[in-house]
Amino acid sequence: MGHIAGFNRATMLNNNVYNLFVAIDVELSDSADQMPAERKDQAWAITCRFGSLLTKYSARERAVKFYADALHITPDYLNKVCRRAYGVSPKALIDQQLLVEMKVFLSDTHLSVTEIAERLNFKDASYMCRFFRRMTGVSPLEFRNGR
Fold it and tell me: What gap in Å lies between CA 73 and CA 52, rounded to an integer?
């Protein structure tokens, strides 16, 4: 994606993340078949809308409550749906989406870590570096340099 310009790159990234959520849904369809039909449809719709919201807002919003409010459900219900559909909490999905965006910035741009932290709404670069290291085991600069 290094050869694709800014807006188009963001659009492609959003589409790829959406495709990822669709692929996850397909893979988990066996477990979803065990749910009653009305709950499966409702849960599927919620997870799809949650995935769309993640691609749109993850750079700015990290609170589960924000996404639950946007979906007009409680954070507890969003947690229940995500755990049933994906086996992880909505916070873990938010963090994973944020990590994907960080990796794209580190791999496909020459932005500094400070600039990336600003774009992804971290209060400072050191907090972003701690988050990245906790999620990957390496620093952002180590990741960028291929270590």
Answer: 16
In three state form, how does the secondary structure of 52-97 look? HHHHHHCCCCCCHHHHHHHHCCCHHHHHHHHHHHHCCCHHHHHHHH
pTM exceeds 0.90, yes or no:
no
Asked if residues 139 and 132 have their Cβ atoms less than 8 Å apart, the reply is yes
Q: How far is CA 95 from the centre of its chain?
A: 6
Write out the chain's pLDDT in tens, 147 residues: 555 555 566 677 667 776 776 677 666 665 555 555 544 578 888 998 999 999 899 889 999 999 999 999 999 999 999 998 889 999 999 999 999 999 999 988 888 999 999 999 999 999 999 999 999 999 999 998 885
DSSP one-letter code for 35: S
